[in-house]
Amino acid sequence: MVVAAWFAALVVVSVAHRWIPQSGWLLVHLLGIGAASNAILIWSGHFTDALLRRSATGARRPDTARLIAFNTGAVVLVAGMVGGWWPVVLVGGCVVAGVAGWHGITLLRRLRAALPSRFGHTVRYYIAAATMLPVGAGFGIAMANSGLPGELHERLVLGHAAVNVLGWVGLTVLGTLVTLWPTMLRTRMAQRVETAARRGLPALILALAVGVAGALAGIPLVTAAGTLGYLAAALYVLEPHLDEIRRKHPADFATLSVLAGIVWLLGSLIYLTVALATASTPLEAAAAAGSVTAALLAGFLVQVLLGALTYLIPVVIGGRAAVQGAMTELERGASWRLSVANAGLLVCVLPIPSLVRVLCSVLVLVAFASFLPLAVRAVLVARRMRGTASKPGRPEPVPARKRIRSAAAGLGIVVLGAAAGIAADPAAAGLSTVDASNVRASGYTTEVEVQIEGMRFVPDVLEVPVGDRLVVTLVNTGTDRHDLVLANGTRTARIGPGETATLDAGLVGGQMDGWCSVAGHRQMGMTLTVEPTGVVDDLEHTDHGSGAEAGSLTSSDVSRSLGADPAAGFVAHDPVAPAPTADHRITLAATDEQREVAPGITQRLWTFGGTAPGPVLRGRVGDVFEITLVNDGSIGHSIDFHAGSLSPDEPMRTIEPGESLVYRFTATRSGIWLYHCSTMPMSLHIANGMFGAVIIDPPDLVPVAREYVLVQSELYLGAEGGEADSDKITAEDPDLVVFNGYANQYDHRPLQARVGERVRIWVLAAGPNRGTSFHVVGGQFDTVFSEGDYRLRPDTGGSQALGLFPAQGGFVELEFPEPGRYPFVSHSMVDAERGAHGIVEVRE
To answer: Cβ distance 822 to 809 under 8 Å?
Structure first.
């Protein structure tokens, strides 16, 4: 039940990860420290007693105490990481490490006190594994310290992962399979299993030590050698089990899930060995380890865990009828669940469009999470059937034909999910728009190297003789991730700075366009043309577009929207200014979100924290802000805080999907400051929603009755449900100009005030291209604060508008003399008519 509780928490975080700080770290550790580690502590103790023929009498209380202490430490550790409190992480990590050491010592004492046992080597696997977790926890505690130098952090990441996954988990699994695997298959143990297990343990430990030493020393080649050694030792230990499989084929969920998990482990080790051998720096080595995270955790660890629990839950329930009933429940949809999980995982680890990966990962989560309700049903059914007379043995096996149909249905669901992702984003799948059916091959190959300079391909014209096969070597000499897509559907993967990719474009028969498919890069000039030389076959040259998105919304669509009311239940973006806070440790997730921006008009925005504008941050001069940017989006993003003064090289760098960075700055000057994505093309990223405000209060700021924040920005609409139109941005031709991300929203949901109340309105012009002349119709400002200084104070005159260029901000204060509806606008009237309009509703 403890394991199931952690697994349930894992499912909840998987579903809600975008709204949970440190969600990526949390997912890994809810599985590793939570579900898997509890399973290891519980079952290794149980198997030790069984294999050593030792009575468990008297051990229950200490075992329970260890579980309570371990889970307390795990919860404290998780809370410390999520809250960013390193001393709490230190305490929780030390408790976890201490309990693991306590567990190992307990097993060692039991082994020494027992009579010689045929299966004592399995217990030695458990003892060796128990020595690994304290080491891995120590690495993790050190990594959590924000003062750790960057390169040392990357080295510890690799060592931490190796010790915990291959040591703590891997050794436990390999040792357990010695006896559990033939038991699950209901066949006799193969002859060489025990010998291989006994001889393999020292080799596994030695290989793991070499790999960890290479990781800590920052030598990826040594780490690769250790990984290869671990792979070879694991194959040596596992190979005798093939005889058991030949005698009794796996046919139920438990055995097939464990078998699939072992295959994922071996495949991951093979890939990791090659990736580490070709890595040149600790950063590349850590990236290589990160690339197999899904395969090792979801493919190996989850499947072994679920397979073992599927077999063991009925065993511990006891009673023949109860066991049969529990097994029947846990076998429901077995073939479907296995097919969806493994096919979906296979798709996810391939270089596929991000939308396909998201859809397939959801299917994998559903397949895994279905274990929880089945486990609950199994326990309830077993309780109901306990004591009922029944024949011993397993439930009736599902006919092979039915299993195949169920597996095929699961595979079909994954295929449909992948197809839906491609259909929703065909450009990312590299679909061809060129007819090359009339090209005659010349028999020659033209090879060209293309480099990247800024936002340009060099060269950007490739002259190729008609009929030649074109092979392009793309060398990323730039500072961002890029790819190359040709109109005939061929493409490279997205590669980082310093990386190289090869594209085989096939036969060239006519002019063909090429571009970088990263959003906005094509509009920034990342295009090239393949020019055929010689006699050109009669091929139709396809116009591949000027950059405007097909199906863009028309001016009539926009006009109708501005005259319409939002749908029932519309909730406006909260304009109330937050109070200053003392703790400025914040996680901002960069996400892709479908959001309505005007009545009936939806766009796919790139956001900070799920909204555009992003959350308002507020503090005082001298406050330290620590923002963790997590890229949960589909392309690279970054963040630039105007409220901080520091070198942009590291904190403002672009991070790729799945990565994160920590941005720290000290607020030294007051004002309302813009933050925004600074990834090129910057105008596109800002226009598509990546901006927000930081308020740093002036030291003498007095309280007022009401305080609002209005962030003005422009929208350059693409297709309905699509992203911003880069050509409109370049032409500075916005469709909408809005306050807080939605056209005219405060006409429909007015700001509130009362007669005689002092109202402060903070205003920020986020752009990307237009400023504002903020004006309240019927009101006069007696206080104006702009760009860090008071331009007007009470009793010294009045102001009718707050004029701001893009990226400038300030606030105004006023009191309303009588009840009524006071419009506020940008007094650049064409912008007011585009949606920069709202109302302050004043009551007695």
So the answer is: no
Extract long-range pairs of 358-362: CB within 8 Å, 24+ residues apart: 358/421, 359/417, 359/418, 359/420, 359/421, 360/414, 360/417, 360/418, 360/421, 362/417
Q: Are 293 and 28 in contact (CB under 8 A)?
A: yes
Q: What angle do CA 333, 339, 341 make, to 5 degrees?
A: 95
Cα 333 off chain centre by: 29
Alpha-carbon span 358 to 356, nearest angstrom: 5
Q: What is the 3-state secondary structure (H, E, C) of 629-650?
A: EEECCCCCECCEECCCCCCCCC
Residue with tokens 């014209």, as numbered in its chain: 461
Rg from Cα positions in the chain: 31
**Alpha-carbon gap, residue 177 to 668, rounded angstroms:** 60
10 Å CB burial of residue 795 (0-12, 13-18, 19+) is exposed
Q: Is 513 helix (H, G, I), strand (E, B) or coil?
A: strand
Q: Is 491 helix (H, G, I), strand (E, B) or coil?
A: strand
Q: Are 539 and 435 in contact (CB under 8 A)?
A: yes
What is the C-alpha end-to-end distance of the chain, expressed in Å?
60
Helix (H, G, I), strand (E, B) or coil at 374: helix
Beta bridge partners of 630: 589, 660
Report the relative pairing of strands 758-767 and 706-715 from DSSP bridges. parallel
Nearest to 159, CA basis, from 227, 251, 88, 259: 227
Picking from 578, 521, 550, the residue whose alpha carbon sits closest to that of residue 720 is 550
Q: How far apart are CA 302 and CA 294, in angstroms?
A: 10
CA distances, 292 to each of 123, 162, 217, 306, 483 (Å)? 29, 12, 21, 20, 22
How far is C-alpha 301 from the chain's CA centre?
A: 19
245 vs 190: CA distance, rounded Å: 10
pLDDT per residue as tens digits for the range 87-134: 999 999 999 999 999 999 999 998 888 877 777 888 999 999 999 999
- pLDDT for 19-69, tens place per residue? 666 667 788 888 888 889 999 998 888 888 888 887 766 667 888 898 999
What is the CB neighbour count within 10 angstroms for residue 363? Answer: 22
CA 240, 241, 247, 249 dihedral sign is negative
Question: d(Cα 506, Cα 415) in Å, to the nearest integer?
Answer: 27
- Summarised one tens digit per residue, pLDDT across range 349-392 is 887 766 677 788 889 989 999 988 998 888 888 888 766 555 44
392-402: per-residue pLDDT in tens? Answer: 445 566 677 88
Mapped onto helix, strand or coil, the DSSP state of residue 787 is coil
Give CB contacts under 8 A, 24+ apart, made by 559-565: 560/600, 561/598, 561/599, 561/600, 561/601, 561/743, 562/598, 562/599, 562/736, 562/743, 562/744, 562/833, 562/834, 562/835, 564/599, 564/600, 565/599, 565/748
Structure tokens at 558: 């926009």
The bridge status of strand 736-739 relative to strand 789-792 is unpaired
Token pair, residue 207, equals: 């290989």
Q: How many whole angstroms separate alpha carbon 356 and alpha carbon 368?
A: 19
| CA angle (592 as vertex; 768, 556 as ends), nearest 5 | 60
- How does 650-671 read in b/e, with b if 16+ C-beta sit within 10 Å? ebbbbbebebbbebbbebeebb
Bridge-partner residues for 447, per DSSP?
471
Cis before 613? omega within 30: yes
627-645 burial, b if ≥16 CB within 10 A, otherwise e? bbbbbbbbbbbbbbbbbbe
Strand partners, 746: 838
Residue-wise DSSP of 156-186: HHHHHHIIIIIIIIHHHHHHHHHHHHHHHHT
> Comparing C-alpha atoms, which of 141, 60, 134, 64 is closest to residue 98?
134
Q: Which amino acid is at 127?
A: I
d(CA 512, CA 462): 10
